[in-house]
Design goal:
It is a single chain. By secondary structure, this protein is mainly beta. Helices cover 12% and strands 45% of the residues. It has 2 domains: 93 residues, Sandwich (Immunoglobulin-like), CATH 2.60.40; 143 residues, no CATH class. The chain is globular and about 65 Å long.
């Protein structure tokens, strides 16, 4: 009889645990990492959680409440880091990027059929301004340069991400970066609306649009006086020291 009661009690406990889990009563939240390539290692608070054996459009992490440090890492690419204040039962969507380290680029020779067109396009390239903003591929975010600051604005009727609503006005115009040097080129990274590519001084860089918390900032190219144009959202042509090279970013 006692054994039977123990089994009944254990069954009740199991049912309660399952019910609490289904109702979101646990002390964890869900973090969704998007668009991760094969080989990506994922760390939470310094502990390796997974290494992907294939490309993943979405990867779910169920992690405990609190300030959690999430890192994605891939061989020969810069790591990406985000600190998330995880709350019970809530979901967070993150979109990492990891640009190549010390990419050599593909040299475009002067007798290449596309060389002349690339020179012309680079010479004609202009920065977006407040009166001539550049729209993201999904037409949700506008970007421009104003007094050497990179500004973005949410222009969609869809609900704006939280960082666009830091003031009483929502959506707000957000300053991504205040820079001292001259910005030469600017565009959206990989056809996304949450990361930008820009050139300044001796380098080309990728930066997150969200300026709050840990703002990821990664170098793409380091040289003397580079300028770039896009081939696709994730491939650029860089002109520097009289040469043009193609770089995947």
């Amino acid at each position: 009889m006692m054994n039977k009661n123990i089994y009944i009690f254990a069954g009740i406990i199991l049912a309660v645990v399952i019910a609490i889990s289904l109702m979101g009563g646990g002390s964890s939240g869900n973090v969704v990492l998007k668009n991760l390539p094969e080989g990506t290692a994922i760390f939470v608070d310094g502990k390796e959680e997974a290494v992907l054996d294939k490309d993943q459009a979405e990867f779910n992490l169920n992690i405990g409440e609190g300030e959690r440090e999430i890192i994605t890492s891939l061989n020969n690419r810069w790591p990406w880091l985000e600190v998330v204040g995880v709350k019970k039962g809530e979901s967070y969507e993150l979109n990492p990027f990891m640009t190549p380290i010390n990419g050599t680029g593909l040299l475009i020779l002067s007798d290449d059929p596309i060389y002349g067109d690339l020179v012309s396009r680079i010479n004609r390239d202009t920065l977006p301004t407040k009166n001539a903003k550049l729209l993201s591929a999904d037409n949700k975010v506008a970007v421009w340069v104003e007094n050497n600051s990179i500004k973005v604005e949410w222009v969609s009727s869809d609900p704006a991400p939280k960082f666009f609503c830091y003031s009483e006005e929502c959506p707000s115009v957000v300053t991504v970066l205040d820079l001292v040097g001259k910005i030469k080129n600017l565009g959206f990274y990989a056809d996304r609306n949450d990361a930008l590519v820009f050139s300044m001084g001796t380098g080309v860089f990728v930066v997150e649009v969200d300026p709050f918390g840990n703002q990821n900032f990664q170098p793409v190219y380091e040289g003397k006086n580079p300028e770039f144009i896009f081939k696709t959202g994730s491939i650029i042509y860089v002109r520097d020291s009289g040469q043009i090279r193609e770089y995947g970013i």
